Amino acid sequence: MQPGKRGSESQMIRQWRISLVVFALYGGLAAAQSGRGELLYSTYCVGCHTEQVHWREKKAATNWASLVAEVRRWQANAKLEWSRDDIEAVARYLNSLHYHYPVPER
Q1: Chain-centroid distance, C-alpha 23
Q2: Is residue 92 within 8 Å of 37, Cβ to Cβ?
Q3: What is the DSSP string of 82-103?
Q4: Any alpha helices (H) in 1-83, and if so which ranges?
Q5: Considering the entire predicted model, what is its pTM?
Q6: Nearest to residue 37, comparing CAs of 62, 66, 67?
Q7: Number of Cβ atoms within 10 Å of the Cβ of 40
Q8: Which of 13, 23, 25, 38 is most buried by a 10 A CB count?
Q9: Per-residue pLDDT tens for 57-88?
């Protein structure tokens, strides 16, 4: 094997490994956030909010921003004091389950 070629292959392998680690971490974070949203919703919300709330004709949430606003409003009404990340996790969970609104990059 030529000396220069070995160095470039080694660099390619290193870049591939870094990309793989970043992808795995991001995927794990997204899964964890989704799981947290589901956990919070099923613990604090599902008692009052059945599926009919999300499928009724006059939905309060009509886009991503209004969905986040509704989650924020209801958690405040319940005095849950969720963080911004918790609110977004629940909104992401509901969005993936019911709404399918485009989500802007954070």
Answers
A1: 15
A2: yes
A3: --HHHHHHHHHHHIIIII----
A4: 3-44, 51-55, 64-77
A5: 0.64
A6: 67
A7: 19
A8: 38
A9: 667 889 999 999 999 999 999 999 999 999 99
Q: For residue 2, give Cα distances in angstroms to 8, 9, 12, 15, 16.
A: 10, 11, 16, 20, 21
Backbone angles phi, psi at 49, to 5 degrees: -100, 95
Residue closest to 95 by CA, chosen among 43, 34, 42? 34
Question: Cα separation of 42 and 40, whole Å?
Answer: 6
- In single-letter form, the type of residue at position 91 comes to A
Q: How would you label 77-91 residue by residue, b for 16+ Cβ within 10 Å and e otherwise?
A: eeeeebeeebbbbbb
Instruction: Kindly report the length of the chain.
Output: 106
- Amino acid letter, 64: W
Two structure tokens written together for 68: 């986040």
Structure tokens at 17: 């490994």
pLDDT for the residue 23 = 47
Residue ranges per domain, the chain? 3-99
